[in-house]
Amino acid sequence: MISVQNLSFQYAAGNAIQFPDFTVTRGEHCLLLGESGSGKTTLLHLLGGLLRHYSGSLKIEDTELAQLSEASLDRFRGQNIGFIFQRNHLINALTVEKNLMMAPYLAGLKIESERITEVLSGLGLAEKRKSRVTQLSHGQAQRVAIARAVLNKPSIIFADEPTSALDDKNCERVIHLLMDVANQHQSTLLVATHDQRLKDKISNQVRLSSL
Ligand SMILES: Nc1ncnc2c1ncn2[C@@H]1O[C@H](COP(=O)(O)OP(=O)(O)OP(=O)(O)O)[C@@H](O)[C@H]1O
């Protein structure tokens, strides 16, 4: 499903970052651990095709990402990958519903109102559908970001530090929510974190070494 071999990446300014070899099979959950600056976000961005021009091999579903054109990569990402960023990247000027509609729209998929209802209900957000993002609590906004990431039923979910800013109770809630939504569609879940509280939650772990 996800396969990384001899992978390295170099920002225009900076040393090459070398990543360990690993594979994650379909439906598996995996933690990507490493200290600040070890390259967790960089790896997620490479896996999601947001960064290109790597050396080595990076395959998703037997597709070497470097071989996809920019346009194919955009489509591939929109249809197969759900991203949960550290900051939620919701559009403040839009309602919850309109923020969610962006996901199928950007992936070139049909916008299905029932699917939005289903996902919002599942995350306890049904009554917030017409609210503006600015009217939500931090935890609610984070759940909207999770809703947007899973709306297209992606086969892979990447989450970048989804819990580091949360107290223990909400940390527990968010990680279980992510695992539950991943399990609903047998999605592969890869969580990048340096949050020690998650270490006992997902036993499959890949550790990035410090630079
Ligand atoms: N746009 C960039 N240009 C140059 N170097 C960068 C850029 N983004 C990140 N880096 C460098 O790449 C290395 C890996 O950064 P990255 O953000 O992937 O680490 P991280 O493990 O996600 O860190 P954190 O846990 O603090 O978010 C760091 O040394 C960082 O300074």
UniProtKB/TrEMBL annotation:
<dbReference type="Pfam" id="PF00005">
    <property type="entry name" value="ABC_tran"/>
</dbReference>
<dbReference type="InterPro" id="IPR015854">
    <property type="entry name" value="ABC_transpr_LolD-like"/>
</dbReference>
<dbReference type="InterPro" id="IPR017871">
    <property type="entry name" value="ABC_transporter-like_CS"/>
</dbReference>
<dbReference type="GO" id="GO:0005524">
    <property type="term" value="F:ATP binding"/>
</dbReference>
<keyword id="KW-0547">Nucleotide-binding</keyword>
<feature type="domain" description="ABC transporter">
    <location>
        <begin position="2"/>
        <end position="211"/>
    </location>
</feature>
<protein>
    <submittedName>
        <fullName>ABC transporter ATP-binding protein</fullName>
    </submittedName>
</protein>
<dbReference type="InterPro" id="IPR003593">
    <property type="entry name" value="AAA+_ATPase"/>
</dbReference>
<dbReference type="InterPro" id="IPR027417">
    <property type="entry name" value="P-loop_NTPase"/>
</dbReference>
<dbReference type="InterPro" id="IPR003439">
    <property type="entry name" value="ABC_transporter-like_ATP-bd"/>
</dbReference>
<keyword id="KW-0067">ATP-binding</keyword>
